[in-house]
Amino acid sequence: MSKTIGFIGCGNMGQAMIGGIIQANIFSSENILVGDVNEKSLEKAAEKYGIKTTTDNNEVAKIADILILSVKPNLYPVVIKQIKDEVKKDVIVVTIAAGKSIEGTEKMFKRKVKVVRVMPNTPALVGEGMSAVCANEAVTKEELDEIINIFESFGKTEIVNEKLMDVVTSVSGSSPAYVYMFIEAMGDAAVLDGMPRNKAYKMAAQAVLGAAKMVLETGMHPGVLKDMVCSPGGTTIEAVATLEEKGLRTAVISAMRSCTKKSIEMSK
Ligand SMILES: NC(=O)C1=CN([C@@H]2O[C@H](COP(=O)(O)OP(=O)(O)OC[C@H]3O[C@@H](n4cnc5c(N)ncnc54)[C@H](OP(=O)(O)O)[C@@H]3O)[C@@H](O)[C@H]2O)C=CC1
Ligand SMILES: O=C(O)[C@@H]1CCC=N1
Q1: For the chain, how far is it from start to end, CA to CA, in angstroms?
Q2: Which PROSITE patterns would you find in this protein's record (predicted)?
Q3: Which ligand 1 atom is the nearest neighbour of the CA of 120?
């Protein structure tokens, strides 16, 4: 019999994963059940993806072989308390919340459940997610592979030591937001100089996508790739010098350390 994947929480990240899974076609829509308190979110998801939905989290807990908890971190204790006695004995619980450790999740279940901790990101929706994964010892190699397979259906995955999860949150979980800010700012600059906004976003976003692919596919150092764009006495080095003067690198490093710090604080 095919397995059922259950989601509790159908917001930004829940929908990105559901959309990714549906597009990858690894679970049929009748094997996906989604619970949320927000009926509007459920209606939208049911209409868009043809999945089954419920406002009763326990309905999801009872049926799911793989249960992805995609509510906000502060709601983990509330939701886990509600469902812990309803989940299947061998359920694989997948947590995606910032700052929620495997040990913390086990404590909330008050028993040794199978826990896979993942930090995904919203580009999952377009098949370009990045997910870092770790698990407790109750999860077998086959079960971990099964979960990795789900997350790989909508992007790339990397197994990490749990100690790195706070850094992961900063470098891939949250980082799409910084990149959107960069694209938006490039768009504004181009609009300032007379380009229509839709063209400006398309050009900026495609340049970011292409640059990211260059890093991933050539394996070259980002600094070398940057140097290849900078003609001596040319245009790019003028922009690079201004970015250095305005502290781009310092701003990025400092922002990411704030993000990591917040994730550590949320773990306490
Ligand atoms: N957004 C992102 O880019 C990423 C998020 N994450 C993690 O994903 C999790 C979800 O984040 P995100 O999707 O952004 O949050 P959202 O607020 O967008 O989604 C959470 C959903 O859960 C619903 N909800 C609230 N209470 C309950 C409840 N008791 N039972 C069931 N559903 C409930 C919310 O409804 P309502 O809106 O009515 O409150 C909402 O629809 C977080 O733990 C976050 O750390 C991880 C990586 C990236
Ligand atoms: O902002 C947050 O807390 C979540 C975790 C990673 C991305 N969004």
Answers
A1: 40
A2: P5CR
A3: 47
ipTM of the complex: 0.99
3-class secondary structure, 5:
strand
Choosing from 70, 131, 178 the residue with most ligand 1 atoms within 8 A of its CB, the one to mutate for a pocket test is 70
Q: What residue spans of 155-196 are helical by DSSP H?
A: 165-168, 175-192
10 labelled binding-site residue = yes
Nearest bound ligand to the CA of residue 121 = 1
pLDDT, tens digit, 9 for 90 and up, residues 208-255: 999 999 999 999 999 999 999 999 999 999 999 999 999 999 999 999
Atom in ligand 2 nearest the alpha carbon of residue 122: 7
pLDDT band for position 2 (cuts 50, 70, 90): confident
Which residue has a Cα nearest atom 42 of ligand 1? Answer: 72
pTM of the model: 0.97
List strand residue ranges (DSSP E) for 96-238, in order.
Answer: 114-119, 129-135, 155-159
- Is 108 annotated as contributing to ligand binding? no
Distance 11 CA to ligand 1 centre (A): 5
Which ligand has its closest atom nearest to the C-alpha of 74? 1
| Nearest ligand, CA 263 | 2
Contact 11, 29 (CB under 8 A): no
- Interval between CA 10 and ligand 2 midpoint (Å): 15
Q: Which domains does the chain have, with CATH numbers?
A: 5-168 (3.40.50.720), 175-267 (1.10.3730.10)
pLDDT of residue 1: 64
